[in-house]
Give the backbone structure.
Amino acid sequence: MALLEILQFPDPRLRNKATPVTEVNDTVRQHVDNMLETMYKAQGVGLASTQVDIDQRIVVIDVSEEGDDPLVFINPKITPLEGPTSEMAEGCLSVPGFYEPLGRPENVRVTALDRDGEEFSMDCDGLLSVCIQHECDHLDGKLFIDTLSSLKRTRIRKKLEKNRRLATA
Ligand code: NI
């Protein structure tokens, strides 16, 4: 396994729209394993392939308390289910240190392939629901800060650039 570099806003590669996986083979499984290792190391609850510059539609998530329940979604598709909109503060490994509440459907159904290429579907609520929606946005090149004002986004960009300069100084 290998740790992957997590792209940070405003890296233009975060805007790529990832290509569907045509066959779940060993290469794809290798990506999955590397993404899980990278997510756990970064103490994130989810990671999308776009964030590590892999052009395949892959999402990994673990919202368990112990961090021992990895979920793998290949070519995930989300359908909102009936129910309220919920607003939860979201963060992102590509926008470290910033949290913003976003309105999203509380309940969604996700259909995807697992690491063996088998299709499955899962109804999600709570943190898992927010997380899968957030990660699927990444696969389409979207970020949770896109709904903020451009002034606020510019502030975030400047702060992140400053942090990176300090980190490499
Ligand atoms: Ni994210």
Notes: Residues 92-94, 134, 138 surround nickel (II) ion (CB under 6 Å). The first strand starts at residue 46 and ends at 48.
